[in-house]
Amino acid sequence: MSHMSGSESPDGEPAPASSGAGADDFAWLYGQGASASAVSGGDPRTTVLPLDQLHSSFPSSDQPIAPSPPSPPRGRNPLVIMIVILLCVTAGAVGGMAFLLQHDWRVAAPRSQESGAKKAAPSGDRPAEQEASVMPSQAQVACQASQTTDDGGHPVYYVPQQMYDGKLNTAWRCNGNGVGQAVSFDFPAGTTIAEVGLVNGYAKIDPVSGAKRYGEYRRITTVTWTFANGTSFQQSLRDGLKTMQKLNIPPQPGDHVRLTIEASTEPGSAARGRDAVLISEVYFGHP
Hints:
Elements (H helix, E strand, L loop, with lengths): L26 H4 L20 H7 L20 H41 L19 E4 L6 E2 L5 E2 L15 E4 L6 E5 L5 E8 L20 E8 L4 E5 L8 E9 L2 E9 L11 E4 L1 E5 L2
Antiparallel strand pairs: 1-5, 2-3, 4-11, 5-10, 6-9, 6-12, 7-8, 7-10
């Protein structure tokens, strides 16, 4: 019988090394593995990696380290961008409009005031000439028609003061052809007159029936204007012209003016009561 050494097992396999010094004397250099995956067969000894694996796991100092790719930019919400753009455009438009309005106001203000003065026309049927006329203080006549009624049954008067009330639908009336009839006008002392005129018929339109009265009555065709100093001027008037007909004259003292009817047309209607002369408005202009 041969004697077996302590380094061999009965089946000829080498016996595992003991846990003493020997092969484990340099285990501290590599570090002791505590994980079971790093130990083969439950041997707590440290597993040593080959150098090529170590090189592949840790790059050498002479190999450049590739930079990591930049992170993609964060996406922007299109709705937010559109809102911002619209706010900017709106703010610019409002600012520009405010500037333009302020600029236009500064430039156009004088023109607006001027045009407003020109457009200050009388309301209703008041003639525009009334604004620039000299108003009589009193009127006297020797002939005046009695009160009548319109087509609606309303009373109609023909007093001489209605010749300068600024209304074309009122008038002074004298029955007949009116030839030789005169109207005397008084003015404040020191008044000067350089223009005269009149509406030579009844310019009224009946408010109920819409009948046009101008063509129904007589129309005055010639008058004479006589002033306080004795100077007189004759004026010819057009038949059918229902607006103010004026006559320019040299400036005259206007304390007293007399209007005398010289001629008139025949009545335009054969209806009862149409044989009369009427003056809807008179005009006296200062220099």
